[in-house]
Amino acid sequence: MANEFQHKDPGSALTQAEFIASDGTGHIFDCQATGDIMYASSATVLKNLGKGAANTVLSMGGSCIPAWTASPSVTDLTIGGGCITLSAATDIDLLDNNASALSFDSTGKAGIIDIVTTDGSEGVTMSGTLGVTGLLTAGSLDVDDVLISGTTIGHTCDTDLLTLGNATLLAKGTVTVGVDGTGHDVKFFGCEAGAYMLYDESEEQLEIRGAAADAATSTGKLLLTTALTNINACDVIGSINFQAPAEAGGTDAVAIAAGIRAVAQATFTCAVNATDLIFYTGHSEAATEKFRFTSQNEIGVAGANYGTDGQVLTSGGAGAAVAWEDAGGADLGTANTWTADQTFNDDIKLTLGTGGDADISYNATNLVVNPQVAGTGHFVINEGTIGGNPANAGTLNLNSTDAAFSGPIMVVHHNTASPADNDEPFRIYVRGPSCGGGNPCHVTHAIHFKRCDVSDGSTDTSFQFDVANNSSGAANTSATLTNAGVWTDASAAKDKEFEGDATTVWGSRVIDKLSTLNVGRYHAVNLPTCKTPLHHVSPTAEDLWEMFGVGTNPYTLNRSSKCDGVLDLPTPGIAAKDLAGLGLMAVQELTLEINTIKSRLTAACIA
Question: Are 490 and 577 in contact (CB under 8 A)?
């Protein structure tokens, strides 16, 4: 019998030949080799099993005979301690219905552990805790609770897929909510009650809502920031763009159609953050700059075109761009006619002149006209016709509807901090040419309002009236109302031509003519019944003119056809100087007569 162990039943005694030496070589298997192992092939026979190939394991076959195999199959495996170590080229596969359910592999798989449940209806079920220290990737996840660092942060169900508590969710890939055509609302709450950001899928819009508290800061806020740590000129700090990227027209249609950018204009420092806000729009191209508001409160048109001082932003009409133009270039009578009331706030000036020479404003109390903002111009009223009626041109009308006053009031204020004696706080000049078209700069009439003494408590003033008397230049004859209320109107001797005494001029003495002059008390006629007449003592202007021919001819109109052919009503009157002069002449004549009588009486007494 091959491979049997010899001398199983030697009897009651062994012969010398059957003696087993002390070195253990007395019993051998037939065909025994190094590495063989012994096993019982039956209840009565011991046999040897030749050594197996490298990396094979001893496995018990179906007939309870051991055999070497490279792919052992184990129904239950219990490891009481120690480790199972795999070489780099060794796999361990756990089979379920002849398909790989769990594989440990470091060479051909996407991960070290690969769980496949394609042929397993039960899937993978864990009743304990799954601890993941790296990245967990799953096609779908259905768990009762999700724990992070021992804290339950949420669970999954049909209505609440994942709820996060105070923990942080980090997504290192794309987060997609809904599918194309079927979206969902996405809502982020703020710290204060009522504050949130919502993408409303039904309205297709993003809403940023402020807090419910009634405060100045209770409003939705959008902040665009940059992570740059060194801002330089032309760096874009924030940008909002408008685009139709899915437009089928392509080219210009899909380019940026409009945008708003905040662009730095200088290198930022602890004291510099100069930034322009620039608006871009497209017409037949990608959006280009159209307007900008600078950090220095400038308005740029189509780039850094800020215009010049005094220019206004003017419309170019339909289809044309706006432009900076000189204020004088706008015709307020045609293209820019105002058809409705225009309201200007207090202290807003309407500036006139290409150099900003004059302005008009309302200072919340008064209408202020300043003709000398730049330059030395004056306030001038130019009219082409004449007339004294308020409806006529060439007339300055002051109209008051205030029942508290008898009429309008004109106030002239000489607003100086250093007044001086003989100042003239106000003057009125009348200028005009001669009938032959001479120098129009002649002052034909003037009224001077003088302050003779400006001392506080002892101020003296006077009026001086100037007129032209046969003059080729300015007004040359003056009359003054002094601070004592006295008229001084005598002209200088050089301006007079003496015509002669009374006898030479009138052919008789003044005293003789005065004795026949009708002098009496009179008053004006056609007065209202409620008005008490004023009485005066005087001759009539007509009688005085007929007797002496002095003053104004009461039978001649006050303006003849000498210059312009315009006739007005006569203006009879008696000059106080004429009455005084006639009275002085009469006194002189009476004095002469008295002296003559005295001389005669003296001579008679001597005789």
Answer: yes
Q: Which of 37, 51, 42 is nearest to 8 (CA)?
A: 42
d(CA 430, CA 126): 114
Rounded (5°) CA angle 127-131-136: 105
Please answer whether residues 507 and 498 qualify as being in contact, where contact means their C-beta atoms are separated by less than 8 angstroms: no
3-state secondary structure of 321: coil
Q: What is the DSSP string of 117-164?
A: -TT-TT----SS----SS----S----S-EEETTEEEE---SS-S---
pTM over 0.70: no
CA–CA–CA angle 519, 520, 524 (5° rounding): 120
Query: What is each CA distance from 154 to 124, 128, 184, in whole angstroms?
Result: 21, 17, 20
CA Rg value for the chain: 63
Nearest-angstrom CA–CA distance, 300 and 324:
10
For residue 201, what is the DSSP state? T
* pLDDT tens digit sequence for 303-356: 888 888 878 888 888 888 888 887 654 444 445 567 777 788 888 888 888 888
pLDDT digits (tens, 9 = 90+) for 342-398: 788 888 888 888 888 889 999 988 888 888 888 788 877 776 655 545 555 566 777
> Looking at this protein, which amino acid is placed at residue 23?
D
8 Å CB contact between 155 and 141: no
Mutual orientation of helices 541-548 and 576-606 as an angle, nearest 10°? 50
pLDDT at 134 over 80: no
Q: Give the Cα separation of 408 and 414 in Å (integer).
A: 20
Nearest C-alpha neighbor of 181 from the set 197, 162, 204: 204
Residue 179 has a CB neighbour count (10 Å cut-off) of 8
Phi/psi for 567 (5° steps) reads -110, 140
Q: CB under 8 Å to 420, separation ≥6 — which residues? A: 454
* Amino acid residing at 509: R
| Average pLDDT of the chain to the nearest whole number | 77
Q: What does the alpha-carbon distance between residue 186 and residue 178 come to, in Å, rounded to a whole number? A: 10
Other Cβ atoms closer than 10 A to 480: 16
